[in-house]
From TrEMBL:
PANTHER family: RIBOSOMAL-PROTEIN-SERINE ACETYLTRANSFERASE. This is GNAT family protein. InterPro entries: Acyl_CoA_acyltransferase, GNAT_dom, Ribosomal_N-acetyltransferase. It comes from Glycomyces rutgersensis. Residues 18-166 form the N-acetyltransferase domain. The lineage of its organism: Bacteria, Bacillati, Actinomycetota, Actinomycetes, Glycomycetales.
């Protein structure tokens, strides 16, 4: 037996022009932790609802490893999040998450991501989100993809707009004692098709993987 027999989602690969997205092994988690330790965002803007980056580099890396291991351990057909590492030229440069609850009924999925600071501004954010959107719409047959970004996160908002998302309301959160506006974004299948520019190859998405994510023959 191999890991993919016990966790079929490890068969999954998403490939774009420059990137590969995959479930992380232990070496990938170490590489991801190194990138987190090196820095994820500037000091003047906190993009995360949970300010996990506000600590020393070693602790930031440790938090990355333990959090992603807990996310992997929590995958069930009813509720799952796939923490896909983003690999460019053999190097892990960030993470692209995609998740859903009761996707068989809701037909919608959520995404979130971060890139190491050294890899900002190179179009990777758009390309990696495009990869999971292909997975969500073509691979899983979803109708909607959802995202959110704090007001002022122009990079994330720019990716959403570029890929065809439309504003879907706001939420308020208290972060570090301050009220922050969280802008919700929704992408329909029609808008995704109209803005689809990246070619994405989906590998390893077989019946066992679909079943592990709450989808099977009955959904067709």
């Amino acid at each position: 037996m191999t890991l993919t027999d016990y966790l079929p989602v490890y068969r999954l690969r998403l490939r774009t022009e420059r990137l590969e997205l995959r479930m992380p092994d232990l070496d990938d988690l170490v590489a991801l932790a190194d990138q987190a330790a090196a820095g994820v965002h500037g000091p003047d803007f906190m993009p995360f609802l949970t300010p996990w980056t506000e600590c020393e580099p070693l602790e930031r890396g440790r938090r990355t490893v333990t959090h992603q291991m807990s996310v992997i351990a929590g995958i069930t057909p009813e509720s799952w999040m796939l923490p896909l590492v983003v690999v460019h030229e053999g190097q892990v440069i960030g993470i692209q998450e995609v998740g859903a609850k009761e996707i068989k009924a809701t037909r919608e999925a959520n995404t979130g991501s971060w890139l190491a600071l050294a890899h900002h501004g190179k179009g990777f954010g758009t390309e990696m989100r495009a990869a999971v959107l292909e997975f969500v719409f073509t691979g899983l047959g979803a109708d909607f993809a959802l995202s959110a970004s704090f007001e002022g996160n122009r990079a994330s908002e720019g990716v959403s707009r570029k890929l065809g998302y439309k504003a879907d309301g706001i939420d308020h959160h208290v972060l570090q004692g301050v009220r922050r506006q969280d802008n919700r974004w929704r992408l329909t299948r029609a808008d995704w098709e109209a803005h689809r520019k990246h070619e994405v190859a989906i590998e390893g998405l077989d019946a066992e993987v679909l079943a592990s994510l709450g989808l099977g023959d009955a959904e067709e």
